[in-house]
Each structure stands twice: as structure tokens, then as C-alpha cells.
Amino acid sequence: MAEAASFAHLWVPFCRKHDIEPRNPESYFNMKRDPYKNKVRPDFVRDRRRVKREYDEFKVRVNGLPESIRRRSDAYNTREEIKIMKRRRELDYDELEEDVKIPKATWMADGTHWPGTWTVPTTEHSRGDHASIIQVMVKPPSDEPLTGTETDSSSMDLTDIDIRLPMLVYVSREKRPGYDHNKKAGAMNALVRASAIMSNGPFILNLDCDHYIFNSQALREGMCFMMDRGGDRICYVQFPQRFEGIDPSDRYANHNTVFFDVNMRALDGIQGPVYVGTGCLFRRTALYAFDPPRTKEPSSCCDCFFTRRRKSSVASVPDGASIEGKSVDSDDEEMNIALIPKTFGNSSLLVDSIRVAEFQGRPLADHPSVKYGRPPGALTLPRDLLDASTVAEAISVISCWYEDKTEWGLRVGWIYGSVTEDVVTGYRMHNRGWKSVYCVTKRDAFRGSAPINLTDRLHQVLRWATGSVEIFFSRNNALLASSKMKFLQRIAYLNVGIYPFTSIFLIVYCFLPALSLFSGEFIVQSLNITFLVYLLGITLTLIALAVLEIKWSGIELEDWWRNEQFWLIGGTSAHLAAVLQGLLKVIAGIEISFTLTSKSGGDDLNDEYADLYIFKWSSLMVPPITIMMINLIGIAVAVCRTIYSVIPEWSSLLGGVFFSFWVLAHLYPFAKGLMGRRGRTPTIVFVWSGLVAITISLLWVAINPPSNNDQIGGSFQFP
Ligand SMILES: O=c1ccn([C@@H]2O[C@H](COP(=O)(O)OP(=O)(O)O[C@H]3O[C@H](CO)[C@@H](O)[C@H](O)[C@H]3O)[C@@H](O)[C@H]2O)c(=O)[nH]1
Ligand SMILES: [Mn+2]
Q: Exposure check for the chain: N or C terminus, fewer CB within 10 A?
């Protein structure tokens, strides 16, 4: 972090001077595009060369860190040992002659112990057992712009360039064995509290560790929504997730275009997109579980804070002053103060910051229609300097016990207890009546990496589906939504909870064509007019839906087809597993564990998409493999029968085989995934699925022996 912060002092002014995009040095320097296009400043070439060199040196230093930290720590540890030995000798202990045992500590450059995990982990210095850490890596900037100067030829000319950097703070919350740290949601909540005390920005951008900013102007676009008239009723602005490093054919629908360019856009027209965990700009007070302003029933739920807040802040410019001394009705006030530790915990700095954040997040009162606006100039007041006591308070709010007996994770902040904490967190806000906005920028706002091999992708989908099943069986089921949630939004959230259950029907549909080939009977016994009309109606609706989806969203037909394919692949494997796991959890109370989705590292220099071919066996693959096998066997059996029958009915065979092919076409990417790069599929896969397929086939034949008429494919005939 220190290395990055120091590089930033050169990098950020460089980006500002020459309008560099993206502002991620790694992807900027690896861009395939001509870096000199549209660049006119004559010193660009020199500056770029200089920065590139610094960046390369920075990378090499970072690579050398494990080694240099080890050497430094060894030196310090030896020094400590010598010190102790000397002291012993002075105290005449030398006859004991025993070895000095001191822990192999990891040391920082300033000669102190690293508070976090040590290279040789010990108690209080290991993963899951260490103190809170807050390090201010870049100090808060000045309030006034600070321009650079013209310097000697060796470095950059920064005249008229604002060289300020935003404050950068490293935060690692306290971890102790025996505490539930609530994974990402817990981490986010610690960050929300620490930042409330240290900077208290009224808006919070949240990015995953595998995402970066691709468009430095995206935030402004988000802010436009927040600051617009009525923008104070927006809880968050969600940007689409875009991915890099995905194989050009996007075999496993990693881009998720149908979700991000159809579903999310559609939701934008109702109450707003769901929160998808990253690339999201939040209003801080919405995270604090307040209702949006101007809700019809002000004291409907337990949000007494909001009532107080509104009453007291009509004309005041809060400047971090404490709640006391405000002209509010005293009864109300007492109740609220008593409630605060219960909701937000025992930090008065944190509680005081809430009102400031609310005030600063309001739209500018520059128009009569802006209610509770912020008077112009209110934000230009210089901010307080960071002092030691503030940092100490920030450290205390990221301790393990801080959330005890508070509402963090229950009502406030990111919600705990779900593997898809994001959906639940957003749902709670919509449920309070907040609106969200979907912001699709012309140039991608953020970009991230996604798991591109089959196994990791399936596990990712499994985790999402598991989260959905959990939501279905929890109080966050949209059936129990409040009246503040719009009707169609409720349907959408209901769908989020229900979709994994469709896997049950999907599985049946995938087996039916094969089974009808085995039995020689079509699924439908008699094709009457009513049935055909229904069938036609449904088919036309589906086609119309697809056409509209493609037309409105502007996605490619290929994207849509990939999505259909992966819907079936995920549906028959991950969704089914999620439903089973979810039922296990609800009925038997057996907990689910999941692993962090692995990233496409791109270590293989020869093949950019080497990860795509990684194959790890997973039991999730059994159902799709079985479906493929059975359908293939079904086709083979039907073809044989037709060939050897007295009067071969080719058209009816075609009718039956068509449906099997339809299923197989969906599973094609999956089959490709199984093959690996050079067909290195573990034999176990085929042994297992072969066994399962044969068992099912035999069972079917035993239960339902084929009828004697040689009509394979049943009475269904193609014209
Ligand atoms: O114990 C944990 C696990 C995860 N994370 C963070 O969570 C992010 C998401 O994890 P990842 O393995 O990348 O999962 P994805 O499937 O790529 O994530 C999607 O789905 C998650 C929940 O389903 C959301 O939290 C993510 O924002 C969303 O991008 C990571 O980047 C981490 O920053 C933690 O902080 N602590
Ligand atoms: Mn991710």
C-alpha cells in the first residue's frame, strides 16, 4: 500500500495532465490501442516514458517485497535477540545458557511490529486473529486546489495541474477466533463506520477487489442522479458489471448481458435495479437504515431518527455539532438518544457524523421544487484535521465487539447471514421506499474479472442460486415486502428468490425427449386442437419475448443464445444443487460453505484464456452429463429401431430426435468444457455418467416396455 501510495503521487497528476484513461496503470500500459492517438502535448512522450519507467520499477519493488520484508524482519529479530541476551548478561544470567526464544515477528519499515498477520503466523498475528489496523497512507488533501510547479527536465512539468490526492486509508478490522466476522458484509460495515469517522463522505462507492475503475468520469454521472431534484430519494446508483479476460465466444455467458442489459434496465423503469455487490454508489444515510425523505407516513416504522433528523435540520447547517442543543421536542430527543447505541453502537463521533452526512448528501437548494435542499456554499467550509483521537475512535469502531447488541447487519449497513448479501441489502432499501438508478455509461464505468472455466463458473452460479433459495426461505422473501415496495418490483424480487426452483421443471423437460425416444411414445398422447393452440400461444410468446429482449437492449443474438444455453446448464446443475442445499438448511439446519470465486489470473503467457480449459471435477456436473448421455442413447436407440423396423417411419423419428437435439444444443458449451483443452477429461466423469445413464435407461425400459408398433417418435409427425 505504501508503494502504491507513493507511486500515486506521480501517476495521478500524470493522468490529470494528459487525460489518461483508464486510470489503472496496469491496464493503461497494456492497452493494445495506440497510446499517442489524440495526444497533442509535446511533453507527453517524455512524461509517459518517465511514468512507465517508474511503474515498472514500482512493480519490481512490489515483487521484491516478500524478500525485503523477510530480510528486514530477520535483521530486527536478530537485533532484538541480541538486546535480550545483553540484558541477561548484565543481570548475570549467563550460567543459565539457554537459547533466547522470541517470536519471529514481521517488522514494518518504521521499526515497529506489523499489527496484522506475520509471515510466520503466531497468536494475535495470524489470519483470523489480529488487532484492528488503520493506516493513513495519503493524508487528507487541502481544501484549496494545489497546483504543481515547473521543475527541472528530469521530472514532469505540473504547472496548472491540481496535484492533490484524496485521502487513502488502509483498514483491516480486528479478527478474533470465535467471532463471526460475516465475510464481505462485515468488512463493508467496518469500512462504513471507519470512514464515517475519518472522512464521512455522504456517498460511498463500493467495488470488489477484482474490479477497477475504467472510466474516471463515471462517478460524476452517478452524482448527477443523486444531486438532481428528487435525487435525495435515491439510495444507490448501480453501474453494470463488465468483465475482461473472457474468451471471445463467452462460452459460459460470463458477460451476463441479458441480466445487465435487459433485466437491470427494465428494473430501472420500476423502482430501480437490484444491488449486485460491486460498482455501486450509495447514499450513506440509506445504508444507515433511514427511510427516504418525504415518505407519506413519517412515523410508520421504528425510524424515529428520521423524524428527529428532519425536524432539527430544516434550516441548520450541521457542522458535526452534537445532537444536544438542537431545537427538538425533548421527549422525542431523549428517546432517540437512548436508541442510538442500540442501533449504531457506542461511538458518539459516529452518531454525530450521521446528520452531517445526511445534510451534505442533499441536493442543492437552487430551485423552489427542491425540498430540504442544502444552501449553496455549505460544503465549502474547510474540514477538520485528522487527529490522533479521531483515528483512535475509528480503530475502536472496527473492533470485534463493536457490533454487539447493535443493529449492524440486522437493519443497518450490509445485511448479514446471506451468501448474496448484496441482493438482500438492496432489497431492504427498496422495501423502505427508496429508489435506485441504473447508470449505463457510454464508456464502461468499471471492469472486473470473472471465473472463466466451467467449474468455477458453476460454483459461482451455485452460490448465487443458494443465496436466492435462502432469500426465498427468509423474511426477505418478497411476498412479505412492505407496501412501500412497488408491485412490479415485488414481482421482480420474488423472481430473484424463485428462479432456482425452476430447475426441477427444467430437469424434467430435458429427460422427456429421450424417454419418449426409448418408449417410442410421444409425451403427449393425443394432439388435439386445444393443445396445439396453447402450444402455439406459448411458443409465440416466448419468441416475442426473445425478440423484444434483443431489440430493446441491443444485445447480439449470440449473447442471447449463450444466455439460453447457460440458463439450461446452470439450471440443471447449480440451481438444482442450490435448491437441495437450501432445503437441507431449512429442514435439517445443515449449513452451507462456499469458496471465494477464483479469478482468471492469466498466468499462462502463451494462452490468454488458459483458465478456460482448466477442468476440476465437480459433482455439480452429474445431472447435465446424465442428460446428455440419456439423450444420446435415446437417439441411438430410436435410430436403430427405425432402421430395423419393417416399415421405417423416418419422419416420426425426426420429430422425436428434434427435441433431443434441442436439449443437446443447449448443453454444447458444457460438453466442450468437459473436453478440456485436448480431451483430457477424467475417466471418472464418463464412468459415473455412463453408469447413471444406463441405469436410468434400463429402469425406463423395465417400467415402460416399448409398445409393439414400430412407431418410434410416437404419433407426433413432422409434415
Ligand atoms: O469473505 C469474503 C468474501 C468476499 N469478499 C469480497 O467479496 C467480493 C466478491 O467475491 P467474488 O469471489 O469476487 O465473488 P463474485 O461471484 O465475483 O461476486 C459477485 O457476487 C457476490 C455475492 O453473491 C457479490 O458480493 C459481489 O460483489 C459480486 O461481484 C470479493 O471481491 C471481495 O472483495 C470479502 O470481502 N470477504
Ligand atoms: Mn468477483
A: C
184, 206, 238, 264, best to mutate for ligand 1 pocket (most atoms within 8 Å of CB): 184
pLDDT in tens, 280-314: 999 999 999 999 988 754 444 434 444 444 433 33
Residues 382 and 516 in one domain: no
CA of 320 relative to ligand 2 center, distance in Å: 37
- Could you read off the pLDDT of 444-477 as tens digits, one per residue? 999 999 888 898 899 999 999 999 999 999 999 9
**Within-domain flag for 478:** no
Which ipTM score applies to this complex?
Answer: 0.94
For 371-390, what is the mean pLDDT? 85
| Residue 435 annotated as binding site | no
pLDDT at 495: 95
Regarding whether 281 and 200 lie in a shared domain, the answer is yes
Residue nearest to atom 24 of ligand 1 (CA): 277
Would strands 133-138 and 129-130 be described as parallel, antiparallel, or unpaired? Answer: unpaired
Same domain, 506 and 442: no
Residues with CB under 6 Å of ligand 1 are: 183-184, 187, 208-210, 277-278, 420, 422, 460, 463-464, 467, 596-597
* Ligand 1 site-directed mutation target among 191, 208, 274, 594, most atoms within 8 Å of CB: 208
Burial class (CB in 10 A: 0-12, 13-18, 19+), 508: exposed
Q: Which three cell numbers stand for residue 653?
A: 423419428
pLDDT of residue 259 exceeding 60, the answer is yes
Specify the 3-state DSSP secondary structure of 365: coil
Known binding residue 208? Answer is yes
Residue 124 within a domain:
no
- 330, part of any domain: no
Q: Contact, 219 vs 27, CB < 8 A?
A: no
Nearest CA, atom 25, ligand 1? 277
pLDDT band at residue 98 using 50, 70 and 90 as cut-offs:
low
Separation CA 54–CA 116 (nearest Å): 29
**Using an 8 Å Cβ cutoff, are 397 and 194 in contact?**
yes
Compute the Cα dihedral for 293, 298, 302, 308 and give only its sign. positive
For position 525, what pLDDT does the model report?
A: 67
From the CA of 597, the nearest ligand is: 1
CA of 213 to the centre of ligand 2 (A): 14
Question: What's the pLDDT tens digit per position in 135-186?
Answer: 999 999 988 889 888 775 567 888 889 999 999 999 999 999 999 999 999 9
Name 72's Cβ contacts closer than 8 Å, sequence gap at least 6.
Answer: 107, 109
* Mutational test site, ligand 1, from 596, 597, 598, max ligand atoms within 8 Å of CB: 596
Residue 184 annotated as lining a ligand binding site: yes
